[in-house]
Amino acid sequence: MRARLRPLLHLAGALLLLAGHAPAQAAAPLEELALQAAQPVDGMAAGNLSGLARCADGRFWAVSDREDAQLYRLQPADGHWQATAEAFAAPPPPPSALPWGLRMGNRLLTPLRGGALDFEGLSCDGAGNRYLLSESQLAVLQLPAFGAPHWLPLPPELLRQARARGLLLHFNALLEGLAVQPDGQRLWLAAERESRGLLAVQRGGERWRCANGGCVLLAQAGRAPRPLDGPGSAAQPLDFAALSWHAERLYSLERLQHRICRRDPHSGAVERCWSFAAAALTPERRYDTPYGVAEALWLDESAAWIGLDNGDQANAGGERRPLILQLQAPAGGWSGRREHPIRRAGPWRARLEQTSF
């Protein structure tokens, strides 16, 4: 029996060897989203647009990571957005469970940068409550439609589980995105980079707890080149910059790769991505920075709005105000399937070195 099987085993081994040396196919390019408008924001004195949302009343709101006591209502004007400040008084944040080194780094940076709470995300629920994500405190502030602002009592195991999976380990690379289910019963948080990840908590009465299976949906390390980088350029860490919820799906803004991805809200698994590189990286809209500047995302069935946090730096066209890019939704809608599925990754994709753990 062994003698008769030996030729078949040799053949199988040869086929596997050939498969291992078969030429890799290139990945199909992502569909580019068409630009509808690119308009500056007037009235944000400190700039640094770091969060964007459209609430149930149809109004757009924005937040700056340099200001702890106000957010901005945005209204379309003649060729720009006009920002009007709305003040609020945040109570003292809950005690931080971050390690001493990260807490001290945030405290030392505040006088230089401004914005001790470092708001990096903004979302709304269907009742008109607004939610602000503080990166420095790893906390979520609710601005209720009626009543005083208060911090949500997030579960202490959120940080423990995240750090055990390699998330929230580095200064200035903590939480960067927030999405809220319309009924206000579930929150998603994005860990920015090194490693990047998606976290979820859900409400049970007056308490918040980790979603079924734990707080961490996805933890992912890896690196990738920027869209305009040439061959041999150094790859940068993968990141998440913002989150948005639409039609039972989670959408991530991925700043480095200039793309929006639809993700499964229960696992964080990517389902489909679209590129906005062509719209954001025209010669006049480029910024002299090694990193992307896309920081805020909101989308509906018709379009996606991306806010650029340019840090008061002018782009190549001389515009120093924050910009909001309005991108048309894909022809098949955000829930549509790709007509030509992505093929196996080619050699350049290997540079991603992605690892989920």
List the helices and strands and how they pair.
Elements: H1 2-20, E1 31-32, E2 35-42, E3 49-54, E4 60-64, E5 70-76, E6 81-87, H2 100-113, E7 119-124, E8 130-134, E9 139-143, E10 150-151, H3 157-164, E11 175-180, E12 186-191, E13 196-204, E14 207-210, E15 216-221, E16 223-224, E17 236-237, E18 242-246, E19 249-254, E20 259-263, E21 270-275, H4 277-280, E22 294-299, E23 303-308, E24 323-328, E25 355-356
Parallel strand pairs: 1-21, 2-6
Antiparallel strand pairs: 2-24, 3-4, 4-5, 5-6, 7-8, 8-9, 9-10, 11-12, 12-13, 13-14, 13-15, 15-25, 16-17, 18-19, 19-20, 20-21, 22-23, 23-24
List key phrases describing it:
single chain; 357 residues; mainly beta; Neuraminidase; 4 helices; signal
Task: Please describe what this structure looks like.
The chain has one domain: Neuraminidase (6 Propeller). The strands form 5 sheets. The chain has an 8-stranded mixed β-sheet with strand order 3-4-5-6-2-24-23-22, with no helix packed on it. The two termini are 42 Å apart. The radius of gyration is 22 Å and the shape is globular. The protein is mainly beta and 357 residues long. It has 4 helices and 25 strands. The N terminus and C terminus are likely disordered. β13 and β14 form a beta hairpin. 13% of the residues lie in helices and 36% in strands.
